[in-house]
Amino acid sequence: MNKLVLLIVLLAGAFSIAHGQQKVIFSGEVRDDQGAPLEFANVIAIDTVKKTMAAFAVTNPQGQFKISLEKDRVYTIKVSFIGFLPFERTYKAEESNSTPFGIGLTTDAQQLGDVEVVSEMPVLIQGDTITYKAEVFTQGNERKLGDVLKDLPGFEVDADGGVKVQGKSVDKVLVDGKEFFEGDTKLATKNLPANVVDRVQVLQNFNDISPLRGVNNSEQLALNIQLKEDKKSMVFGDLKLGGGPEGRYLAHVNTFYYDKKTNINLIADANNVGIPAFSMSDYFRFSGGLGGFSRGAGSSIQTTSNQLGIPMAERNNAKSLKNELGALNYNFTPSNKWHINGFAIGSRVDNTLGSISQRTYVLQPGNNTELLTSEQQVESTSGLFKYGIKYMPNPNLQVDYSGFGRLASIENLDFQNSTFGNQSNDINGATTQEPYSIQQQLRAFWAATNKDIWSFEGSYSHEIQDPTYNLVNSGQPFASIIPMTGNSPYNLTQLRYVATNKYESALNYYRILNKTNHVNFKLGSNSTSQTLNSSMYETLDDGTVNEFSQSNLINLVDYTFEDYYLGILYKTKFGPLEMSPSLNLHRYKVWNNQNDSQNGFDKTMLLPGFSARYQFRSSHTLNLNYAVTAEFTDVQNFAEALVVRSYNSLFRGNTDLKNSLYHSLNLRYFNFNMYNFLNLYGGLNYSKRLDDVSNIVQFNNLERVNSPININAANEVMSGYASFDKRLDAFRFNLSANWSRSTSNNIISDTPNQNVSFNQSYKATITTTLFKKLYLDFGYSLALNNYEARNTTSQFETHQPFGNLEIGFLKGFTLNANYEYNSYVSSTNPTQTFDLLDAELRYRKEGSPWEFKVEGMNLLNTTGIRRDSFSESLISTFEYFIQKRYWVFSVMYDL
């Protein structure tokens, strides 16, 4: 409580200091030489003494603006707009003007000043592109690109480096127009230095294919980071070395080189202080940009990831993390016609995770609670690479080829103790695998005339999954199903091998009828073939092997999925309203061979889609999207023989599975108002799955067998989000909310069961910077999770006030502290409180490339944090053990 009071006192002090400075409101209207209002004109106030920008505004549709200035100071007011001569006048801020100040701009016939005007404008809105001048919004304490983005209106950067703009995730990051590590946001936000960023461009409906711009419905959102002129054609970056007690170490290198023809980015990292430069989750989500084509036509096949239960270690759930990374990205443009790009990433992780979880099994008769303690050791070595070449002899023709590869060697050791009723088992599990995949893609785009455009896309991918799971259990696992003959401890090994080959192609023809109408015809195919082999054996005390030959324990399955489709999309525009209805006719053939028999089905489906966009103005839009998707599952859900998934879970496939039908509807609202510095966005999402693939769960005490079925009842998810962001003088206020309600159905022990999950999160934040020296960030976060099943209900709450402080003092010193307090309230367990505090002290002499830093992590030495989760058959409350307190001293040098 004392800590919370201190936070409130600091915040109140910041408010009083800020409002102690007398402010004057200067308002006006900007019009052209015909008297018409100019929207998005930039108004800048320059302090004539400090020679710095003191305030700025952007005019609204009525040409109005208002800025807050310090009383009795003299400013130079500058007004600029593309295509007009700039306006400039000296103004002394004595009293707030009651009558708007009229400013008229004269058309610049020669437009020679456009480049100069653009370079000064804090915000430039042109169609689907919004450009921010970084130095206007930043506070001067930013270290990396992620810090810069957090300062921009409507931007969110999560702890893992993901970026959202107006609630929508960023798909790609470009640097000076070229992709940075295939557009990966984390590598960009965590490594690109803040002091090289000149402007940030938000590219909505991004499309990097010249012949297709304006005709296809791109939903991609990209950021283009424009570098400062003095950072081009030179090597820049930073080098960092550090160490501390108990063998702590860190080393990090960022080097970047950009010029007109060659861009090279090199990142290297090694540390054991819990900084995941490239985690296992990054490896599995790094697609290389070679996406499929058929999903855009309303069809998809969900192949099981080769993640296969490997835990994703992050700083807030691991006892220790050791990371090594080497990453190279290159872009080379030998001529205007050719472009070569690619990357290579190698990483190694050695992580230890520990947790205690209370697991409540849904519909389990009698005692239904298990206490599970677990410690996991994950070691992995992985590599990713991509090579791409693009040929573009003119704006009407583009041909490109890409190759992407991914390989890894992973070992996951799991040491557990399970207490269920009066039974206690010691469990050792080990999963090893060496998965790899290779993808190739060829694309060609040709604008034959200004009304006729053709495109062809083809891809091939080959993927191998080979997990081996070894289970050593003090009690006999699955005694009524698997005929083990040994003694305790029982040693069971599950072998599995899955090979996947996938071919996709799509031919598109676009016919532009006029400026507001065009039609797109599509012909495509998707052919996926898979082979699955699985078996299991027992290792006896004397080392001999007991191989199980029962047919229900051996899988040998061939699976084929074929999809041929014809689609049409019509795009039309009525003033501010743009609509795109579509229809896709699919012919499916699905079959599997196993146990000397073939099962499958043929199906023809007509799948509709619709999207609409209403543009109130350039920065005020409403988007609606609706789609029906036929989703098919992969070979692993068809394999009928048993497969061991964990110490208490078996899985048996179902040869009679059919596809599910997925209806999705989303509505997105965006209002970006620079006149009053208000940013408001929100959205609603609804999905309904018919014949969804769910599970029949059969319990035998703690053990269970899962088998997939097409459930008759509909599974539904409805979610929403909203964000309110307001800037007022030196303060920024942000309110955000997210909620999601999901309903899923399954069958447990022959009893139909409906699971309902309702999750809510709310967050309020106040940020201010005073005197360019003191940065304060205070907030409160609340998470409410409610889980309901047929005879079980659980509620969890997390209350989290937090505060971040950064202050500069003396000459060159900076103190930064981040604190959060957590109160975890559970309906089934006592309330737990824990708090986290990190701090660092930096010294950098003005103008020096050297920086010295002492940082302490988890200074309050918190041992664990609480989380909860919900699945189709159990509710879990976790306590994750985290890294203990440590100190590190480091030295950084800017290149």
From TrEMBL:
Q: Hey, what's the signal peptide range on this chain?
A: 1-20
Instruction: From the Swiss-Prot or TrEMBL record, give the protein name.
Output: TonB-dependent receptor
Any stretches that span the bilayer, and where are they? none
Q: Which organism is it from?
A: Roseivirga thermotolerans
* Source taxon at top rank: Bacteria
Record key words, sorted = Receptor, Signal
**Lineage, highest ranks first:** Bacteria, Pseudomonadati, Bacteroidota, Cytophagia, Cytophagales
